[in-house]
Amino acid sequence: MATHPMHGWVPRQVTADKVTTAMDGDINPFTKKPLSATYKKILEARKKLPVYGYMEEFYRIFNETQITVMVGETGSGKTTQIPQFVAYSDLPHLKGKMIACTQPRRVAAMSVAKRVADEMDVELGKEVGYSIRFEDMTEPGTTFLKYMTDGMLLREAMNDPSLARYSTIILDEAHERTLATDILMGLLKDICKNRPDLKVIVMSATLDAQKFQRYFGTEKKLAPLLKVPGRTHPVEVFYTQEPEPDYVEAAIRTVLYIHQAEDPGDILVFLTGEEEIEDACRKIKIEADELASQDPHVGPLMCVPLYSSLPPQQQQRIFDPPPKPRRPDGPPGRKVVVSTNIAETSLTIDGIVYVVDPGFSKQKVYNPRIRVESLLVSPISKASAAQRAGRAGRTRPGKCFRLYTEKDYIKELEEQTYPEILRSNLANTVLELVKLGIHDLVRFDYCDPPAPETIMRALELLNYLAALDDDGNLTALGSMMAEFPLDPQMSKLLITSPEFECSNEILTIVSMLSVPNVFLRPPNQRKEADAAKALLSIPEGDHLTLMNIYNSYKQNEHDKNWAWNNYLSARALMQADNVRNQIQRIMERLDIDLTSRTVTGPRFYDNIRKTLVCGFFMQVAHKEGERNAYKTVKDNQAVSLHPSCGLDTNPEWVLFNEFVLTSKSFIRTVTAIKPEWLLELAGNYYDLKQFPAGETKSALQRVLNKQLGRQIQGNGESGAPDARKKKKQKTDHQAQGGYSTPPAVQGYATPPAGTARYSQHRPQAS
DNA sequence: GAGCACTGC
Hints:
By secondary structure, the chain is α/β, with parallel strands linked by helices. It contains 27 helices and 21 strands. The strands form four sheets. Strands 4-3-5-2-6-7-1-8 form an eight-stranded mixed β-sheet, sandwiched between helices.
C-alpha cells in the first residue's frame, strides 16, 4: 500500500514543499481516492494564479499567528485557494473540525464552493459544501470546507458562541463591510482570546488592510499582512475638466462620444436607480440610431438596462453579444449596459472595455433621531471608484471616464464607503448581540463603533417590545424573538399572534412583508395594474391585502399565469412562500401554536389588526388636518399615505410598515387601527403622562376620557379609576431573563423610566 | 398621487 500523502504531517506545521508534493501526487489525501485527470488539468491552471506563488509565505504567517490579514486584488485567486491551503494545514478531516469561508452573497458562496469541490476532486456537498439560507449543502461529519454567507455564520454563532466546530474561519470580502461581517469581526476577535486553537483570516480586496491590521493587532504590533497582487489589465482613467451639472446628461454624451471615437468594446455606465436607467437607455437608443443614420462610420448600438428588480430573464440580456454590423464590411456593433451598483460587486460582465462613472450611487442612510432608514443619492468612495474602473480591465486594457474633476476625486471622495453598521437601524443586530451574550453593547469592540444614539434607539425599541427588561437583560420573549430571521417587530407579532387566534394569518403577513414588492406596474399598463390590485385589496388595510394576495396565489397555484395576469411578481410570491415555510418551521420548533379563527369577516380582521398593534405600536400616525395629512406619533413627523396605499378612506389612526423619504415623506403599507387598541395593547408606550403635547395626545386623551366616562356611568363611582390598571399583570411572555449584568446602556440616556415598559397584549374579553 | 441601491438571516 502506498504511503498516505499526509503521513507524519503535524497540523499547522506543514510547509509549502510538502503541500505541493501532496497536490502533485496521485492520491487525494483527503479521500484517499485516486486523483482524476480533470483534477490534474485544473491544478495546472491553479498554479498560474498569483496566490499560488505565495504559498510559502502564507504558511510562514499562518502557522505562526492566530489572526492573519490578507489583501488580494481581483484575480489573485484568494477565495478559491486560501481555504484549500488552510485545509492542508489544519487537516480538518482528521480532527472533525471545519474550515469556514464567509461571503457576503449567496450566489458567491454557492459558485465558489462548486469550483473548489471540482478543484479538490470531490463531490459538492461532501468534503466541500456550502450553507446559505434555505439551502444547506453540507454533510455533517464529512464536510470540512464550508463556504457560507456571513449572515449564516452569525446565526450559527448564536447557538454556538465559541464557534467550536471550526478550526479556522476566513472572512472573505471584508472590505465590503457588511453588517454581518463587522459583527463577526468583533466576535472573532473576542473568541480568539479564549480559543488559542482557532485561527482567523480576514481577506480584503482593497489596500485598506492597515485598518484591519490595527484592529486585529495589539497596541504595539499590527496583525501580520499577506499581500498578493491581482491579475487584471491596466485601465486608463480620464477626468472631466469641469464639474458636470447634470450627470445623467453627461453620461449619455460620454457614451455617444465613445461610440463614435473609440475602438470596439462594450460600455458599462453606472447610474443610481431604475427610473434613471430606463430613461437614459431610451435617450441613448434614440441618439445612437440618429448618429448611425447620419454617419456611415458609426456602427449599431444596443442599450441594456440592469438593476436587481428586473426579471431574471431580462437581466440575462447583459450577456447577449453586441449587435452585428449592418453590412458585412460595416462598422462593428457595440453593447452598452446601464446599471446600478449591482454591476460593481454582484455581477460581472465580460467584454467591458469602457466604464462611464458619474460618481454617484444610492446609499442607505439611517437617522436615529427620527428612526428612519432612507435611500439617498450620494457621492461614491475612492474604493468604489477603483472597483468601477476595474470593471473595464477584465478582458483587456480598458478606459474609465469619470464624470468629475480629478481635484474633486482627490478632495471630495471618501477613501472607503461608510460601513453598513454606521448606516443602519440596529434593532435586529442589538438583539442578536444580546442573545450572543454581549451585554455592554456600547463598549463592544466594533471595528467602527456606531453612534451611541443608534444603539440607544435599538435598546429602546427592544425594551418597549419586552425583548429586553429595564436593565437591558434578554427576556424569555426576547430570546424567542432572536430565533427568527426577522425584524424584532415582526417576531413579536408572530409570538403574540396565538393569543389573538390568527397566527397563520400573521405568519403570512410577516412573510409578505419580508420579500420585495409584489406589485408590478409596467409603465404602459398602469391603469390595468392598478385595477387588478384594487380587485384584491381589502379596505381595512394593506397588511390584510397582502394576506389576501398570498391566499389567492396559493388557491390559484395550478394556474401558472395567475400572478402575471394580476400584475403580481411571481418571483416575489415564491420567495414569500419560501420564507413562510422557514418561519413556520421555527414557530413549530418554538411551540408557537398555528391557529386561525373559523369565523371570518370584520371581527376576524379586528384580531389581525390588533396583533399588528402589538408589534408596530411605535409606527403609528394620526390624521391631523384635512385629507392626507398625518403626523407620526411621538416624533410628530408630517407624513402622507403613499399613493400605493389601498385604503378607501383616510382613517384617523393608521399603523404603517415603512417610512419612505422620496419626493415627500410617505408611510407605506398602512392599516387602519383604533386608538383604544393603542391604549389597551401598548399602554406603556401610550402612557399619556409621558406623551409630548400635541393633537395626538389630545385625541388619545379624549378616547381615554370617554372610556373613563363610560366606566363612571357604568358602575356609578365618583372617583375615576385608571382604566388600564387591571391590565398590569404581566403575561407569561414577559418572564425575566436569566442575566444579572449591569444595564447595557450605562452612561447613556435611557428611555423615559416608568413602571415596566412592556406592551400589554392580552385581548379584551369580548 | 409615486417608486425597490444592494445584500443577508
